[in-house]
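## retry 2 of 3
previous attempt timed out at serialization; input unchanged, resubmitting
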Amino acid sequence: MTCSIKKEVIEKTIEFHGHSCPGLAIGIRVSELAMEKLDIQNAKAPVCVTETDMCGVDAIQFLTGCSYGKGNLIHKDYGKSAFTFYDRDSQKGFRAVFMDNFADDEKQTDDTRVLMKKMIQGNATKQEEEQLQKLRNDRINRILQADLKNIFLTEDVDTPPVRPARILKSIQCDSCGETTMESRIRLFDDKNLCIPCFQNVEQKI
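## retry succeeded, writing output
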């Protein structure tokens, strides 16, 4: 099933992120999944926990309303293309894991890696740059045109993946003088230190 999100909304998502890429396409599709399963874009108390910091997280912010600033988009640095969505009001949620090889040709994947490495190192020819762009566009199209059940493994979640955000006190660091959230203050030699100042004096870090 081709992506059900309107073309103009996808274009605005690309504009928000800055470019089109396979990672953003993954974020668009998992957001679509959350819209279908939880009506996440209209939920009053939505939560998303992302286990990656790749491009798709921008699509999640733009399309679902979950964001870092509101405290309902949480990043766990696990290096997995996995996303948990939860609606606190309905107490329903799910975790979705992107199946990285859902429809990839192994040779295309290897070619993409080689060409990406050349691009990063600045050694790619114009022909190789064009070949890489074609491979990336092909992958974007496959992701956007696939049935959601063929690109994500999902499981239901019946408990909130994270605790609700709390408003904490700010404490002045005794070293730099900057105010710091109390949960990030470290006590050292009878002084309240922010994490950077603590790292400057704690030799085991």
